[in-house]
Amino acid sequence: QLQLVQSGGGSVQAGGSLRLSCAASGYSLSLYCMGWFRQAPGKEREDVARIPSDDYDEYNTPTYANSVKGRFTISRDNAKNTLYLLMNNLEPGDTAMYYCAASWVTCTNFSVWGQGTQVTVSS
To answer: How far apart are CA 69 and CA 62, in angstroms?
Structure first.
């Protein structure tokens, strides 16, 4: 059974950077479409970034929400079985709880979730 354990996050001033990690166990992350999601208090969950599985897209072309495009980078290290989200030029609006999630092969059913990690950006 796939399990995801997140690390990283914390507090940073606007313009700073953070990197989130999502370590997988049980199965290879390369078999899954992986995503990062976030939810701020009182707001709906937002789809931040996705990276396809190796079977679906051998180039692993990522997709991003418009709100983070050009600032965030999603990546996967198959050797370490770990997903990353590098967040640069952070803004107060990026403050939220961040979750990684996995969907088997295609990005249609994110059924396995990490425990979440808080990111707080102060102005």
So the answer is: 11
